[in-house]
Give the backbone structure.
Amino acid sequence: MAVKKIPLTVVGGFLGAGKTTLLNNLLQTTSGRRIAVLVNDFGPINIDTQLIAQHEGETISLTNGCICCSIGSGLDAALIDVLSRDPQPDWVVIESSGVSDPAPIASVGLTEPSLKLAGVVTVIDAEQIQTQAADPLLHDTIEAQIQGADLLILNKTDLLAAETLAQCRAFIEQRYGALPIYETSHGQVDETLLFEVDETPVLARDGAMQHAPASDHPFETALWTGQGTLSADGLMAYFRRLPRGVFRAKGFVRTDYHGWVSIQFAGRRLQFLPVGQSDDSALTQNQIVFIQAPDAVDLTTLAADLDQLTVASNE
C-alpha cells in the first residue's frame, strides 16, 4: 500500500499583503487538523494565550494540536523538527519571506519523501498590487511570487469600492493569466481551500455531475462520475482550461497511460498519484470531486467535457 504523505502548502506574498494574518487564522480556527506552520518570525503571530500549551525556544505548541515553528535556525532544521514529532502533523504550511520567490521552497514538497506538494498560495494586497507591479524595484519580486502560485488570495478587498476591485481583478487576469483568484479580507480563508479536497468521492448512481453533500466551508462542491478509460493527455488539457472559480479537485480515474490513479488538482498543477492495491481492486468507475466558487461553472458542460475524454471502455 502506498505510504501516506503529509501535504505541504507554501504561502507567499509581498510584505504587508496579509500572510501572517492568514496563518494566524489557520492556527486558531483549524477543524481538528494538526497543522505545523513554519514562519520566518512568529513574533507577529498573534496567538491567543489560552491556546498556547507550551513555548519551547523556536516552537510554540498549541492546545489544538497545532505547532508554530520559527525558521530562524534554517528551513531544514525546522522541517526535521516537525516531521520527527509523534504524532506527525496532518499538514505542513511554510510562509516564505515577503521579498522572496516561494517556488524554491515548494520544491521541498517534491523532494522530501514524507511530503507532497499541495500547492503554492500567494497573498496579494488588492489595494497595492498595481502600484507594486509598476515599481521597477519590486516588479521582479511581484512577478515571481504570482507566476509561481497555484492560487491567488486577493486580500484586503474591503478597502476597495466594487468598481475598483473589478479593475484590480481585470489587471491581474490580463497580466498574469488564468490563475484562480479567491477574494477575501483580513486574511480570512477557509482551510479547505488551502489544504486539499478532503471529501472522499462517493459513488453516484447516475454517472453524471451532481452536487456532493453539503459541507461547512463557503464553497460549492460538485461530483462527477463516469465509466471507461480516460485520455491522460486530455485530462491535463481539460484541467488547464478550467475557469478561475474552480479552486481544487480530487478523485480516482483510470487513464490510458497510468491505469487507476488518484488525481489532485490545485491551481494549474494536476498530479497523478499511485493508489494501493487494495484501493485499486475496489475502484469501478471514475469519480472526481470539485471545489469551486458558487456557480463558477455550468455543471452540465463540465460533465459533458469529461465524458468526451473516454477513449475505451473498462470491459
